DNA sequence: CCTTCACCTTACACCGACTGTAAGTGTACA
DNA sequence: TGTACACTTACAGTCGGTGTAAGGTGAAGG
């Protein structure tokens, strides 16, 4: 499978050059459309690696690096003109995986990128939603100091929900993934498993995280503390 | 828990300086006693990271890097005076995790080492014996294209055997690890589990890998193909 | 050659986890 | 208030993992 590399660089000429370098090696290259709000665009693209410049219009590369490292699992390679130790230490401290300075020989960049991709491929696939982590391989959910191993069926459901956040996942979609359709099983079994999943997530302190959207399906809901403001009008009633 | 860093460097002054740098940061530093046969000494020490010079007496750093990367799971940071792209590419290609050139600022070295340690801590613990791999966390054994998930008890036994290769592991040791001694369980259950483990390993093509040492315990045996020479006098009978 | 001891193997039964079925309850919305 | 949708609980079947029991195998040693 082709691996996807996202280049966050505002100098259009350099960006093209980098893209060409990676494409020649068989990678698929992604870019972002604007530097106004790059975070969401990067997260949505699910790249396998990002090459990040530090001097960006708007938010700095440092902030971006810190934000992304708290929320995702792909490696970040810093490529910058700032050739000084202070910046390098800061970037590495924020979680950056490598720090190269311009001008950088394409072969060095490729070798460093390849090494990061190789290392990260060996990492277990861990999905994140707020402070809830889910290790897909062994179906283990972790929330702060609580953890719990889910049965396989419930794990598959949680995986789907976490992968599609913040979208709603239809019952058909879930049934297809687990039983290959609803022809030969009662739809009720899905609801039973939803109840079981909810109970398990409740055990580790995430009550009500799985929300029903009547007639459409299920989705994950942000925690109460995170939506205090927008729900201010309703909360006081409780 | 203190992390262990092994420094492979023949210049004794530089080695002391590096050791001091790491110890000041709270790491425990290991060295090797000679450069005649460093491989086994490094593997036995089970360090969390090694800092490796390229110009060594005897075997070159490149060979060492390649050998170690095929057999172990800790990160390798190259620290060398060879400041040229060719060597860097070669080292990275052989699996090295970072490549720094002397002179190197201690803070840069520390930051790079810390980043590698952090990344590798997230990797699953995988034990190796010849071409047999065992993922301890989810009890999964892999041999070439075959794989299989072991029951927990059998996994614990295999883990012990692999960790102590090529030593013999006593029955008491195994019983202690699994049942906390043989006071309240029949010794027979150990033999039953050995049979089960052997059958499972047989399924993925490693018949006879678990060997009994009468009166002492159990150990893992190298595969037939690897000991053709020393067994040459016996094999023809079969 | 026979005994003995250590080790191996198989069959069986228990237990607990996971899963789907069935039936009854709750709830949003027209 | 009725209907469609969603939730919950109880139950039973299945399966995998584990330990017990009992008999078999094989090598060391007299």
Structure, described:
The structure is a homodimer of 238-residue chains. Chain A has 238 residues and is α/β, with parallel strands linked by helices. Chain A folds into two domains: 4-121, 3-Layer(aba) Sandwich (Rossmann fold); 126-227, Orthogonal Bundle (Arc Repressor Mutant, subunit A), CATH 1.10.10. Chain A has eight helices and eleven strands. In chain A, the strands form three sheets. A five-stranded parallel sheet of chain A has the order 2-1-3-4-5, with helices on both faces. Chain A has a four-stranded antiparallel sheet with strand order 6-7-8-9, covered by helices on one side. A two-stranded antiparallel ribbon of chain A has the order 10-11. In chain A, strand 6 (126-129) and strand 7 form a beta hairpin. In chain A, helix 6 (152-164) packs across helix 8. The longest helix of chain A has 16 residues, at 106-121. The first copy, chain A, is elongated and about 60 Å long. The model of chain A is unreliable at 225-238 (pLDDT under 50). Chains A and B meet through helix 4 and helix 5 of A and helix 4 and helix 5 of B. Chain B binds a DNA duplex (30 and 30 nucleotides) through residues 151-154, 185-186, 188-189, 191-196, 212, 214-215.
Identify the biggest protein-protein contact and residues per side.
A-B, 21 and 21 residues
Identify the CATH architecture of the largest domain in chain A. Answer: 3-Layer(aba) Sandwich
- Give the structural class of chain A: alpha/beta
Q: Give the strand order, joined by hyphens, for the main sheet of chain A.
A: 2-1-3-4-5
Q: Could you name the CATH class of the largest domain in chain A?
A: Alpha Beta
Q: How many strand segments of chain A?
A: 11
Main beta sheet of chain A: 5 strands, parallel
Assign the CATH topology of the largest domain in chain A.
Rossmann fold
Total count of helical runs of at least 4 residues of chain A: 8
Seen as an oligomer or otherwise, the chain set is homodimer
Give helix and strand order of chain A, one letter per element, not per position: EHEHEHEHEHEEEEHHHEE
Level of helix content of chain A? 25-40%
Low-confidence stretches of chain A: 225-238
């Amino acid at each position: 499978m082709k691996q996807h590399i996202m280049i966050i660089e505002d100098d259009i000429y350099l960006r093209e050059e980098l893209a060409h370098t990676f494409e020649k090696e068989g990678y698929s290259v992604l870019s972002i459309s604007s530097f106004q709000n790059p975070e969401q665009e990067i997260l949505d693209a699910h790249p396998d690696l990002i090459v990040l410049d530090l001097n960006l219009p708007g938010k700095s590369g440092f902030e971006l690096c810190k934000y992304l490292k708290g929320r995702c699992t792909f490696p970040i390679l810093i490529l910058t003109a700032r050739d000084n130790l202070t910046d390098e230490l800061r970037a590495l401290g924020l979680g950056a995986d490598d720090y190269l300075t311009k001008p950088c020989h394409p072969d060095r960049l490729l070798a460093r990128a390849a090494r990061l991709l190789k290392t990260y491929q060996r990492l277990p696939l861990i999905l994140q939603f707020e402070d809830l982590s889910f290790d897909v391989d062994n179906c283990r959910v972790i929330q702060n100091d609580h953890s719990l191993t889910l049965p396989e069926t419930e794990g598959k459901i949680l995986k789907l929900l976490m992968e599609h956040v913040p979208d709603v996942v239809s019952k058909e979609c879930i049934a297809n993934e687990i039983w290959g359709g609803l022809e030969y099983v009662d739809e009720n079994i899905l609801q039973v498993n939803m109840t079981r999943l909810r109970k398990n997530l409740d055990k580790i302190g995430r009550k009500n995280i799985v929300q029903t959207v009547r007639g459409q399906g299920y989705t994950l809901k942000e925690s109460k503390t995170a939506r205090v403001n927008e729900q201010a009008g309703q909360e006081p009633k409780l």
